[in-house]
Amino acid sequence: MHALTLLVKAVILQYGYLGMFLLTALEQFIFPLPVDVFFGFSIEHGLVYQKLMVVVLAATIIGSSIGYFLGRFLGHPALTWLVGKTKVEKGEIYIKKWGIWGVILAGLTPIPFKVVTWTAGIFEMPFGRFLLGVIIGRMPRYMFTAYAGAKFFESKFYATTDMSALILGALQGLTEFLPISSSGHLVIMEKFLYLPIPADHLVTFDIFLHGGSLVAILLYFWKDWVDVFRELWHMIKKASLDTSSLAFKLAVGTIPAIIAGLVFGGSIGKNLRELHYIAILFIILGVIYFYAAWRGRSNTHETVGLKKSIWIGVAQAFALVPGISRAGLTIATGITLGLKREAAAKFSFMLGGVAILAANVYAIFSMRNGAPIPDLDFILMGTVTSFITSLLAIYLLLRFLQKHTMRAFGVYLILAGSLILSFL
To answer: At how many degrees (to 10) do helices 341-366 and 326-336 cross?
Structure first.
């Protein structure tokens, strides 16, 4: 293995980006070493972070595709010869049970990824869904390990303006609705990615990013929002409250977060934005997901009562703390209170829409006259990215919760938190 490590380093020194491309592509279907352990070495010897990530992304897609089609056309015998019968059988069970989420989880963890790419092809997972899982699973891991390596060698990363818009838009869209904490991942991103954007521009830009997520919620659940507006109109006409209506429950569920926001303001976010706090909260949140999965094994309730909406609203208020996922904690609370996973997620997303709207309105009115606004192209790029990734995240999570608990996200958060603590 030592000789192989020396060979890899020689390839990187000799061929640079091309060498990293070949090594990354090979890792996805046959190479025994995890290539991301060499990212720090690559950056130390002159490779630029953002260029390296583009090369790695392309290589990951190509290498995973090769593994997928090798599995599809060569099948069990070749994979059994390559990794052994036991690993093939475990891979078969894993892919059949988890599907795309298994690909994502394997991409983030030390699970041998080449087994997953071959197995996905053998059992004919839809190719587009497979590639989506590859990108979502592999790239966060590669970005983080590159950061860890660069931190060791004290390198700094600089993103272009367009790249910053895409990164922040995708980060907002995916982490707002996937239960992994948007605020926590934003803090992590700020620690290793130097964005060429003034801080006052970021405040304004954040409003537009959340606006993209808000439009995604309104569009995805448009029929439910039509019913909510009808209920509001009827209550206004009759001048009386309908406490059983979804509109009333959403309003009541939003009150705790509004009170917490007005009382504490930005003090919570300012005082708890250190990485060690984020890591600890990730681990705690992961444990909560495991508890919710255990409590919700036989849940049958699909209707959110008034008391449940209040408790879910209280959980949403705790999500003002960076590192706590608003979607994750509210869904876990709903499940713990007896709701089915899909019902808890749907109410969480709609409650989040009201919260995002309230927060954006407050942010707009809090802005001083003459507040700086980024360029229109920058705003459009980030907002559209946020909208698309928000729609994708909502769809994926709702589909996932139809068959699976939140344990997979709990595993991710516990591993991520432990990994962060290990580098501090």
So the answer is: 140
